[in-house]
Design goal:
It is built from ten helices and 13 strands. With 397 residues, it is an alpha/beta fold.
Length: 397
């Protein structure tokens, strides 16, 4: 057994074997951090091996990138996951966490690690909320949140671009509602991941794809319910920017419980669930169809009224056409009779019949004055029924 003096070098300084030094180092750290220590940083390189989880906490400092290995063993991992799950969270790369544990130097690997035993969920929630608010403020200040809202909604959006997971129950329900609506929607489906590291890039690619298509009226971005971590992709700036630049109105149906995602804030219309998203489109088209039916009914009523008025006018016109000629003919007949009477009155024969006569000289001129004839001149007098010839024997004036 080594004595105290055996652990000293000739110069009086401590001297250990590697195993001894590792043991001393762990004892010193245990004494220094009696009761454990809280360490905060960002998760990187997360992996699970069997019942245990391993990752690195990182921090960018003035001295560069600082790293600390973290080990979460079975029982501690279960407790940490349970606390996170209660807040809708789960461990993932890029998440900022504050972990409680004890430092440990593992001699066989020459590796210093934090043996984590607990997590401060309030710290993580606060960091996520802070990042979200900072991003949302940035998007609002730059006008990104209003760009897609200004896209005009087509009068009858029947050609739908759907972005969702093919296996999502929310999409299955939404599809059933669209089918049962009786409206002839044309669905173009683009399957994407809706959680995990690949979710944001795939959603962005799908949004850009539909944006370039002229045969799309509206884009529906759907995702069923899940934890805050599950929905984290929809708080990514890349998705917000893709929605803003999309050439079609974007409806979101993301199954969140309380908070609106960044995607909801930027979208043209935000709905609580995929089914509600489909129903919003159905309601819009149905409203148009109702208005169309009302307009058609008004046009039909106006047409019937116009036809009835035309029939009435036609009947009156027909009646006028039937009576006006008769009335006109009667008036003309009366005028003719009056004219006939006048003509009859002016007829010389009628005058002669009343006892008048017309006398002409030998030249055929009507004798109007006694001075126009002379003794011995022959006259012809026309009377009713014939003529009388006479010779002037005497002229009296």
């Amino acid at each position: 057994m080594s004595s105290k003096n055996d652990l000293l070098h000739d110069d009086g300084r401590p001297s250990f074997t590697v195993a001894q030094f590792v043991d001393v180092l762990n004892q010193v750290m245990k004494q220094a951090f009696d009761g454990g220590v809280w360490v905060e940083g960002e998760i990187e390189g997360l992996k699970q091996t069997g019942p245990n989880m391993y990752f690195t906490l990182v921090e960018q400092s003035s001295k560069g990138k600082m790293t600390l290995n973290v080990n979460l063993f079975r029982n501690d991992l279960s407790r940490v996951n349970r606390k996170l799950s209660e807040q809708g969270l789960e461990l993932k790369n890029g998440m900022k966490v504050k972990l409680q544990g004890s430092p440990d130097y593992y001699g066989p690997f020459g590796k210093l690690s934090l043996i984590a035993r607990d997590v401060d969920t309030t710290f993580t929630l606060g960091d996520l909320a802070l990042k979200r608010e900072e991003l949302l403020r940035k998007l609002r200040d730059s006008g990104v949140t209003e760009k897609n809202k200004r896209r005009p909604l087509p009068l009858v959006p029947l050609r739908l671009g759907i972005i969702s997971s093919a296996e999502a129950a929310g999409w299955a329900d939404a599809r059933q509602h669209l089918s049962e609506s009786g409206i002839a929607f044309h669905v173009n489906f683009c399957a994407v991941r809706v959680q995990g590291e690949q979710a944001a890039p795939m959603v962005v690619q799908a949004l850009d794809y539909f944006s370039q298509r002229a045969d799309i009226d509206i884009v529906l971005l759907m995702r069923g319910g899940g934890s805050k971590s599950d929905l984290a992709a929809f708080d990514e700036e890349s998705i917000a920017l893709a929605i803003a630049r999309c050439q079609h109105p974007v409806f979101t149906g993301i199954g969140h419980q309380v908070d609106r995602s960044i995607a909801d804030e930027v979208a043209h219309t935000a709905c609580k669930t995929p089914t509600a998203c489909a129903d919003a489109v159905i309601e819009h088209v149905s409203s148009f169809l109702v208005d169309l039916q009302d307009t058609a009914a008004r046009i039909a009523n106006a047409t019937r009224s116009a036809l009835q008025r035309s029939r009435t006018r036609l009947t009156l016109s027909t009646e006028r056409l039937r009576t006006i000629p008769n009335n006109s003919l009667e008036r003309q007949r009366q005028k003719v009779m009056l004219a006939d009477q006048k003509v009859r009155l002016l007829d010389p024969s009628a005058t002669l019949a009343r006892g008048w006569s017309i006398t002409r000289d030998s030249r055929g001129n009507i004798v109007r004055d006694a001075s126009s004839v002379s003794r011995g001149e022959e006259l012809v007098t026309t009377v009713h029924g014939g003529t009388v010839r006479s010779t002037v024997t005497e002229v009296e004036q």
